[in-house]
Each structure stands twice: as C-alpha cells, then as structure tokens.
Amino acid sequence: MAMVPKEITNTILSAHDIVISGHINGDGDSIGSCFAMAHALKSMGKNPMVLLEDYPSKYTILPGFDFVNKSKNLKPDLFIALDCGEESRLGKAVNLFRNSPNIVIDHHVNEGYGDHNFINTNASSTCEIVYEVLMALGVEIDANIAFCLYAGIVTDTGGFRFKSTSPKTMEITGQLLKQDIPFAFIYERLIYQQTLHQFKGFLSIIGDFTIVPDINLVYTIATLEKMRELGITRGDLDGVVTMFKRIKEMDVAVFAYERENGTTKVSLRSDTINVNEIAQHFGGGGHKYASGIDMDSSPKQSIEQIVEWIRQNIGTN
Questions:
Q1: I need a labelling partner for 243 at 20 to 30 A (CA). Which of 8, 21, 157, 235 fits?
Q2: What is the CA radius of gyration of the chain?
Q3: Alpha carbon of residue 183 to chain centroid
Q4: pLDDT at position 71, please?
Q5: Are 33 and 99 in contact (CB under 8 A)?
Q6: Burial code of 43-79, b = ≥16 C-beta within 10 A, e = fewer?
Q7: What averages of pLDDT result for each successive group of 10 residues across the chain (317 residues)?
Q8: Spatial distance between the Cα atoms of 93 and 168, rounded to a whole number of angstroms
Q9: Residue pLDDT, tens place only, 143-192
C-alpha cells in the first residue's frame, strides 16, 4: 500500500469546513468513502458536508445521509474528491471543486487533477485508501466508519471476487469486522438482494444478450424505452455486466445503457484483456479489467464502435 503523503494529512488537518463528493451515479465505493470520511472528520471536530447526486436506493442503508448538504452557497476550506477519476464526473459539484482548495483521493487511473492527489491504482477501492488516510490521521474507526468502508470494499471487489482483491484488502476488512458491523446484511443488501419487480427487469435485460463470436465478446443494452417498459431504473441494473463474466468462453463483457440526455454509459469487464485501453480510446477510463465510457451515440451505435475498434486493434480468434 502506498504511504499517505504528508501533504494530504496536513491539508486535511488544517481545514475545518470540508466538502466531500464522489462521482455522479454514486456506487458503494463512492458513497461509502464519502460517508466514512465525513464520520471521521466529524469525530475530529470538523464540519464535513457531503454533496450527493442520484444513487440507487439500496445505498440508503449506509449511515451518513445526515451529512448530505444541498446548499448552493458553500465556501469550504477544503474540497475532498473521492473515487472520481475525472474532474467532469463530479457533476454539479465541479465548479465548487475548481474554486476551492482541494484534494483528490482515488484508485482509478487518474492524472491527478487536484491541488493535492493521492492515487493508488493497486487498491481494490477508494474505501481501502480512505482507511489508510484515516489511520495516518489518527482516527479511531467506529462502527459507522467501518460500516461505510466495508460497504465500499465489498461492492467494488464484487464480494471479494475481483482481481483487485489483495491481502491488504482482506487485512483491512478484518479490522473493520472488529467493530461488529452487520457484514452479512450489508453483503446481501448491496450485492444480491432485489425486489421481485427489480429481479424480473434485471433478468429481462440480462436475457436479451448478444454474442460477437469472432472477438469473444458478449453485450446487452438498456434503452430508456426498454427501462420504462420494464418499470426499472439504471440503479436496478447494477451487476449486469459482471454477470456476463460467468460465461467461460467470453473475453469481454459490455453493458450499455441510455441516459435521459441521450448519451450512453458503457461498462466493460474482462479477466484477460486490458479494457482500460479500449475505454481510454473513447475518452473513458477506470481499471485494467473494469472500465467505463461516456459516449454521445446511442447504445447500439456505441457497441458497434467498440466492437469494430476491438476487431481492428486487439484482434479476433
């Protein structure tokens, strides 16, 4: 694990009013790291405020929503961006970030767009890095902090199944479990549990998959029309792309869904191919085996572009 830079801890220690935010379309790691940091800063006598946009309802089990601030007139001493690989993915918070002293803490491939940056791409999650930062700050981990950090680690490792899971990941998790958090409940609610309605919609999108045999790629798409027809939202489709990794013969799994503004979000997963290379070509990024892209084309057109690029640059069977 990378050592926490002194400039990170000193900057945090010298601030009082601190805004924290993660990436848009918040997930377990983004929300978990924000709330864990907020609880920790509160225990240090500071005034933390979390900026949070839309997120799947399952994350309401995390303790920390009392920190969410909707004020438009914030003037923080410090802005901490967590789990956000690109400045633009801060969403509505981007202008406040730019106009405030700031820190970026992240585990995505990240050019370091902050005044101070602590990036560790070897970490399983940003929550894993935040744990190290809190240790360097001398914070005592309580049940609320442990709950949030565990939620981020367990979701970003796919329940400790992904290759990013390391001995350090498990060591930190062991420390969190000492706080007697309801780890089985968190795991079930965030990894598996869905309502019957959500489950049916999930199966419908999963079942409408397509195989591209010459490049061992499997994909599915979710248009706005289809999601409305099924009565589901994007948040109900967490885990779709990961599910396709169960197909032994496939090298790349892709899920593309349409957003309200007409753009497409593409998620790529693999166990053998560097999908971050694919994502970066189209202006996206992430990790070697798990990356994402925001594209201006329709889901179908986006998939077609990606498939053709793979054929031309990575090759076929």
A1: 21
A2: 19
A3: 19
A4: 81
A5: no
A6: bbebebbbbbeebbebbeebbbeebebeeeebebbbb
A7: 88 98 94 98 98 92 95 93 93 95 94 94 96 97 98 94 92 97 96 90 96 96 96 89 93 95 93 93 90 94 96 75
A8: 32
A9: 999 999 999 999 999 899 888 899 999 999 999 999 999 999 999 999 98
Question: Alpha-carbon distance 230 to 205, whole Å?
Answer: 9
Structure token pair of residue 94 = 């981007």
Measured over the CA atoms of residue 311, residue 312, residue 315 and residue 317, the dihedral's sign is positive
Q: Is 241 exposed, middle or buried (0-12, 13-18, 19+ CB in 10 A)?
A: buried
Among 175, 155, 174, smallest CA distance to 32 is for 155
CB 240: neighbour CB atoms within 10 A? 20
Here the tokens at position 261 are: 């503004």
Shortest CA distance to 82 belongs to which of 142, 143, 138, 41?
41
Token pair 């390391």 in the structure block, residue: 166
The whole-angstrom separation of Cα 124 and Cα 164 is 5
Distance, in Å, from the CA atom of 106 to the CA atom of 214, rounded to the nearest integer, reads 36
Q: Token pair 């753009």 is at which residue?
A: 263
Residue 13, amino acid: L
Determine the length of the chain: 317
Measured in Å, how far apart are the chain's first and last C-alpha atoms? 38
Q: Of 107, 117, 110, nearest to 79 (Cα)?
A: 117
The structure's pTM equals: 0.85
47-62 pLDDT, tens digit each:
999 999 988 889 999 9
